[in-house]
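Entry 14. Structure prediction run on the chain below.
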Amino acid sequence: MSDSIGLLVSVFLASAVEFVEALTIVLAMGMTRGWRSALAGVAAALAALTVTAAVAGYAIAEWLPESLLQLIVGTLLLIFGLQWLRKAVLRAAGLKAHNDEEETFRAELEAGRQAGSERRAGLDWFGFVVSFKGVFLEGLEIVFIVITFGLNADNVPGAAAGAAVAGAIVLTAGVAAHRPLSRIPQNTIKFGVGLLLSTFGTFWAIEGLGVFASDRESLAWPGGDVALVVMLAVWSVFSWSAVRVLRRSDDADRDEDRVVLAAEGG
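Output returned:
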């Protein structure tokens, strides 16, 4: 049960963040370069992602034994999750600027307005390429999450459904608002997703160490899925402790700078 809940929550939240970022790019290109070119870029990216997902999913599922699959996917998820977690911790500690979708949107609008005019196959090439690139790169992360979680949890349809629901909600809200979804607390979501990815990554990677045993069978955690809850608690405590330590360090540095400035002024 915890596997299934974690699967749906992780895929939904991670996909929602990527959909928001892709939506910002497409909106900017549609408003400045024309919707026909922007939507053509989206369609081409979706076609490429469909092929990529089908080929990668089949290859991973058919060519790798279960324990090796868990080791590889768990390790990749752990690396991916730690990257999200690192950025979220730095932002929560005030050491890294928060993502500002409005600012990103303005930058994309300006780039669209200043780009030269070049048409290919009846499309504005700049709008097509930027839309394609934005959707494809953000979509690759969604595909990665869906495949890895889906295969390891033996529930690819569930993972795909989580991503689809996230996409439907974000796109519906974006179309209705005609603007980027800047009010979504991206850092909070990324913090949560980073914790979930790191938790499942650790869980599956250690299970996959059984590939080095004589029978190549996956290792079993004491308590089964209950270990996931414990692992999540451990990562949560570690992350929030890191935020507090970094905040104190930053505050101490600022106090020291104030003392130095006061001494120099005196």
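The two ends are 65 Å apart (CA to CA).
Filed with the rest of this week's runs.
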